[in-house]
Amino acid sequence: MNTLTWPEAIEQYLFSQTVAGAPATTRETRRQHLAHLAARINTPPFQVTGAQLVEWAAGQKWARETRRGRRSTFRSFYEWGTQAGHLGDHENPALMLPRVKAAEPAPRPAPDRVYHEALMKAGERERLILRLAAEIGMRRAEVAQVHTDDVIEDLLGHSLRVHGKGLKKRTVPLTPGVAADLLALPEGFAFPGAIDGHLSPRWVGKIITKLMPGKWTMHTLRHRFATRTYAASRDLLVVQGLLGHATPTTTQRYIVLPPDSMRAAVFAAAGVVSASAA
């Protein structure tokens, strides 16, 4: 019978993830997922049954995307446990977790009013985080890792090397105001903290949640960026590149279609040149 405790198993699993090249942000997220499970299920990690795991997951009030993330973590953890021989003859319990379908597209761009009110309440550090999300379209994990070395001068101004998901990097143009704010920082991480020298993505999100009311979150600022850049460019591939998405299908989930485009399409179908001609 395997006698590894949850803390021991989690540390060994995360060490294997480090060796495999998993980003620090991914490892920290998976640590949180597993610690949450460990604190609430009264069974050693490799004695958990599939039925236990399913029953526990069913009792959680999670959004669909949260369920997808937790399922991914548990499957990765128990696949590692199987390969490392920790499960022995015990069946991999994560195999019983049903596949969770992706949520239907529901873009929620934060209104300008919400964004500007948050800016007014924010301090200098919080204001820069807000601008990186709303004006550059960055995820909280990407904002957490911003370093002054990532600011690049180019022929048209300045750009930022963004450290995205899965160790993928992309270069995004900076507005003059954001560029000036970043260039004014002391050398090093823009937001120093305890996670590899910078703030954790979770803490970055908490900072902004305190500034934005109700349902509006840092991620809705990214939806705002996607919607506004699409309205300006009418080019889905441009927006995909700016957001760092693997496919345009994902990008579509972030965009509220400009109403003028939809109106123009309806008028064109009817053979009407313009609203005034109708």
For the largest sheet, list the strands in their spatial order.
1-2-3
- Quickly give the structural class: mainly alpha
Order of helices and strands: HHHHHHHEEEHEHHHHH
How many helical stretches? 13
Radius of gyration, in angstroms, nearest whole number: 22 Å
**Gross geometry:** globular
> What is the CATH topology descriptor of the largest domain?
hpI Integrase, Chain A
Q: Briefly, what CATH class of the largest domain?
A: Mainly Alpha
Span of the ends, CA to CA: 78 Å
What is the average of the pLDDT values? 92
CATH architectural group of the largest domain: Orthogonal Bundle
Give helix % range.
Answer: 40-55%
Counting DSSP E segments of at least 2 residues, the number of strands comes to: 4
CATH superfamily of the largest domain: Intergrase catalytic core
Strand content: 5-15%
- Main sheet attributes: strand count, strand direction, barrel closure: 3 strands, antiparallel
State the low-pLDDT regions, or none: none
Domains, number: 2
Describe the structure.
It is a single chain. With 278 residues, the chain is mostly helical. It folds into two domains: 6-96, DNA polymerase, domain 1 (Orthogonal Bundle); 112-261, Intergrase catalytic core (hpI Integrase, Chain A). It has helices at 6-19, 24-38, 50-58, 64-83, 112-121, 124-134, 140-144, 176-183, 201-209, 218-233, 236-243, 248-252, 259-269, and strands at residues 151-154, 157-163, 169-173, 192-195. A three-stranded antiparallel sheet has the order 1-2-3. It is globular and about 75 Å long. The mean pLDDT is 92.
